[in-house]
Design brief:
By secondary structure, the chain is α+β, with helices and mostly antiparallel strands. It has helices at 32-41, 117-124, 145-164, 188-196, and strands at 4-8, 15-19, 27-29, 53-58, 63-67, 72-76, 83-87, 92-97, 106-109, 131-132, 184-185. The protein has an eight-stranded mixed sheet with strand order 10-3-4-9-8-7-6-11. The chain has a three-stranded antiparallel sheet with strand order 1-2-5, with no helix packed on it. The protein is globular, with a radius of gyration of 16 Å.
């Protein structure tokens, strides 16, 4: 059985793949930061009707970029915030990583998955199984406290397994642990405007 999920930006310049066996879980995040990031990108299909972003947290070593890496760039909403990677060619979101690659985590935004919804559901479960930060949603969203707890434990277990394996492979950092691109840190004013938009 093929466990590889292809990744592709909107214009097809950036391509890659995810080993679905190394995914930690699947969740929809309704936080203001994810929404501000989606507005920064300015492309459709990232947010759902309630302002949530569909994310598959995974081990960074499970992600392999195969084409267009020169177009992969990142931004951050604050000087110490997480790195939010996207394809500069068409502003397709790719994933979010900590600034320190020693923490083996990447939250892949499913907008870059080049697979039909039923394939994504079969690989990672339904989109609404785990929801986060529902208090920030732009429309009513049912909380999933048990799913949140189970998902958190799966993420923690996955991170610990990756650490025990001493994995260093990541498509977003070089061998020395530096990000492939220097992040574009937006101003506080720009961030506030993005949070208020829409």
């Amino acid at each position: 059985m093929d466990t590889t999920i292809p990744l592709r930006c909107r214009c097809g310049t950036v391509k890659g793949e995810l080993d679905a066996r190394r995914a930690y879980t699947r969740a929809t995040c309704y936080c203001k930061d994810c929404r501000a990031y989606a507005r920064f990108l300015g492309v459709p299909g990232v947010l759902d009707a309630a302002g949530g972003t569909d994310v598959v947290p995974a081990a960074p070593a499970a992600v392999r970029l195969t084409a267009g890496t020169e177009h992969v760039t990142c931004m951050s909403l604050s000087p110490k915030g997480i790195l939010r990677w996207y394809a500069a060619c068409c502003r397709t979101p790719l994933g979010n990583t900590p600034r320190d690659p020693k923490l083996p985590y990447v939250g892949l935004v499913t907008a870059c998955f080049d697979a039909p919804p039923q394939t994504v559901d079969a690989a990672f479960g339904p989109r609404d199984r785990i929801v986060l930060n529902t208090q920030s949603a732009t429309a009513p969203v049912r909380a999933t406290p048990l799913g949140f707890l189970a998902g958190g434990l799966r993420i923690l277990a996955g991170i610990l397994r990756a650490k025990l394996r001493r994995e260093r492979a990541t498509s977003f950092f070089d061998a020395a642990g530096r990000p492939l691109r220097e992040p574009d840190v937006i101003s506080r004013e720009t961030r506030t405007a993005l949070e208020r938009a829409g």
